[in-house]
Amino acid sequence: CTAESLVEEDFGNGIHRAPMHTLIDGMKVFTFAISKPPRSVQQFMEEQNLDKDNDIDFFLIHQANKLIVDRVVKKLKLPVEKVPYNLEKFGNLGGASIPSLMVTRLRKRLQSSEPSTLLCSSFGLGLSWGTMLVKMNNVVIPELIEI
């Protein structure tokens, strides 16, 4: 941060920004979200020799928005019944979106002794992304407290 990075410019229409302010290009973010994470998931499944129908119980996709999640599901040809949503209740929770799916949609399953295999794909800030495989059972998950 420098003195120059704090000096605001007038961009018209009431928009004033300094060089240190973040500017997001929505279409670039959308294009990233529907291209890079699906490629990452596909590459991960290929490298790990995973079959989406037989080896994975649930695909937990970052709950950015319904359009993005639906596009990712369609691109990967994922079984819809294996992709839980909770956007209608919470919206985009950022880094908490995948844990919130575990609590709100998979709680009973993950608490059971039956192992569940979850493939998680998250993406976000700075156009970063990650894919991981988690096997879980007997997880202690308290009830969600809504206020």
Describe the structure.
This protein is of the alpha+beta class and about 150 residues long. Helices cover about 35% and strands about 20% of the residues. It has six helices and five strands. Helix 2 (about 35-45) packs parallel to helix 3 (about 65-75). The radius of gyration is 19 Å and the shape is elongated.
Mean pLDDT: 92
Unreliably modeled segments:
none
Strand order across the largest sheet: 3-4-5
SS elements, strand count: 5
CA-based gyration radius: 19 Å
Helical run tally:
6
The major sheet is characterized as:
3 strands, mixed
Give the SSE order as H and E letters.
EEHHEHHHHEE
* β-sheet strand percentage: 15-25%
Shape: elongated
How much helix is in the residues? 25-40%
In oligomeric terms, what are we looking at?
single chain
Gap from first CA to last CA: 38 Å
- Secondary-structure-derived class: alpha+beta
Short description:
The chain is α+β, with helices and mostly antiparallel strands and 147 residues long. It has helices at 26-33, 36-47, 66-76, 87-90, 97-105, 107-111; strands spanning 9-12, 15-17, 58-61, 116-124, 128-136.
Main attributes of the structure:
single chain; alpha+beta; 3-stranded mixed β-sheet; two-stranded antiparallel sheet; 6 helices; 20% strand
Blueprint (SSEs and pairs):
Blueprint: E1 9-12, E2 15-17, H1 26-33, H2 36-47, E3 58-61, H3 66-76, H4 87-90, H5 97-105, H6 107-111, E4 116-124, E5 128-136
Parallel strand pairs: 3-4
Antiparallel strand pairs: 1-2, 4-5
